[in-house]
């Protein structure tokens, strides 16, 4: 700014001219300089030279001269005057210290949000140059441009406010893979200036969706059974696109945290990339522990990346109602009397509830008047089977064929004791439930044997006696009485035959009995038949 005082010419009409020089070079209006026309104010003539952009190579040490020439319009009255003034400029070279670059991250975004990162570039006061470029990159070398690498990233045009420039990078949506280091690189080509600043962006994992499912999913929940709660967390892998893990906290109906070392209520935490935790009751109880109520599963999603913050905890609940254990049942499938020689299958069925935490102790035995024999000692085929649920056990004995010695009382007994460990003074390890049940099946063996023919009758010469031979059918006999008849007439009734009991029913038994023949007539043919009257 150049100011000329012309108060001495206050009463005289004058013409004033003003010119500007740099190092004796006359300056004119152009791209480098703007010369404002002089303005007269209170006898002061003021002119302004605007240097549109200082350059250290041109302006440092340069002398700027303002020359003013005053010429009276009536020179014969007063003489004119020429004067000038000069100033030498000191201009520092433009460097990185003249620009401040900062990246503004106002908060920690949650994955899925729309989020803006701002790069603020502050130039020197009265800075007139424009920025050549502002780039957002992932690396110092600037080899990965954010907007090119990330389809969800958008650059907003740079906004200028005086000497402050703002570049905005929008992430829509922000993802966990966006948690990284960002560089804002600024270039001003007229000064061959390039500078940058960087900042880490931390992204928080959003709260997961958490659900709890029971096993069994439906039906009553009985005490003394195993019971499982499965807690599953789900994340949106579109926005959580990095490996994550989960941590869990289970709380009981009283609000107490269930420790991971609880023996009866086993907390199975998530492992690896699995977002599933389980709470296993071994067993669930209504008495000492009163496990009924509402259980809470709390899940937090974590990442091993230091720039990815864990999610806020998410809770979900499930009410559990525990019912008393119903009685165990023992039933036989067969009852009553069975014919000698038939095929018989005797089945003892023991039923408990599903998922009972112990296996009942089952004893199957036969009781006679003189002995007790276990199933394994009966020398008959048997099988023990259990259904898929483990709640139905069948003890099956096969009698094929039925023998006299199979008669007796068959008994099936079952019992179980659900306890913790051994310390009955400790409520957490004491007995929970004890049950026993039994069933009895009495087998009566009957037989119906029709008369059968004698195989031969041999008369004894000179006597009235004869030997009658016949075969006892394939069955077991005790000592018996036999009746022999011929042509419809019975004789020698109640002939006692001893020691004919058979030890095995697998073969026929030949018998020969001596009888006294009476009333026979010569030349007649007689058919002899035998009745067995004593069948056990």
TrEMBL record:
Matches recorded under Gene3D superfamilies: Immunoglobulins
Domain Ig-like: 1-90, 112-202, 208-315, 326-431
CDD domains according to UniProt: Ig (cd00096)
InterPro entries (UniProt xref): Ig-like_dom, Ig-like_dom_sf, Ig-like_fold, Ig_sub, Ig_sub2, Immunoglobulin_dom
Annotated protein name in UniProt: Ig-like domain-containing protein
